Amino acid sequence: MRHILDGQPRGSAVSTLRCKVGKVSFLYLGLPIGGDPRRLDFWEPVLNRIQNRLSWWKSRFLSFGGRLVLLQSVLTSLHVYALSFFKAPSDGLRGGWFGEGVLKKVGDGTETFFWTDPWLGGTPLCVRFGRLFDLAVHKSNTVAEMWSLGWDTGGEAWEWRRQLWAWEEEMLGEYQALLLDFTLQAQSLDMWTWRLDPVSGYSVRGADQLLTSHPIEPLDVASDLIWHKQVPLKVSIFAWRLLRDRLPTKSNLAIRGIIIPEAQSCVTGCGEMETTQHLFISCSIFGSL
């Protein structure tokens, strides 16, 4: 193939092979080929397919149950095909209470994003040095790639969209001072660690302690987390009903007249009234799960 293209103009090669001239990236079997899966624009074809399947006119003719079935069939199937070939960026899992509990431990630096992962000081560098991140050209580079380019003074890793101003140069000097004592470990892999227990790792108990230590947020703020795109739909619906006390506890069933008021005792036999607060927090049996 290469000899044919080297010896003939492109038009002659296309005529000989009876093919079309394409460009990278392109779609093959519904998958983008030749792009960088770490960039958000790489996933636009997948997002467009999901958006087309969830067109507004379809929901007009479906019941609430039909809409749930449509959402489940689309959101649990279309992206699985693409994710079986490519690794999606995990930015959506960071931030909030979970982002405060995890830290990236750098080994060889090949799996850690230089700007967006919390690998230095516990805070992503794009947050700590937001001005420099906005001006940086290599926003998606890993720590290993920035290391190879050279992040010391005058290194090729520092490529900007324009010349830095004086106060931005001072910020860059502060940035480079943090990197002076850092070295890569070629024999170790990058890994996520749980800050509350770096030895044993993540646990539900540790996450519960982290959540209960936070001040109670309004429902409007919590709704952004409940309906997050990474949360399964059935979990979002359950959490939404839980926070609004819409679960069929015995207390709610008695209010609706479905059961008699005398039958509101907790199913565990503890003698307390079965409310949402009791079942999930104060119950001696269910509350400890």
Automatic annotation (TrEMBL):
It comes from Trifolium subterraneum. InterPro entries: RVT-Znf. Residues 221-285 form the Reverse transcriptase zinc-binding domain. This is Reverse transcriptase zinc-binding domain-containing protein. Pfam families: zf-RVT.
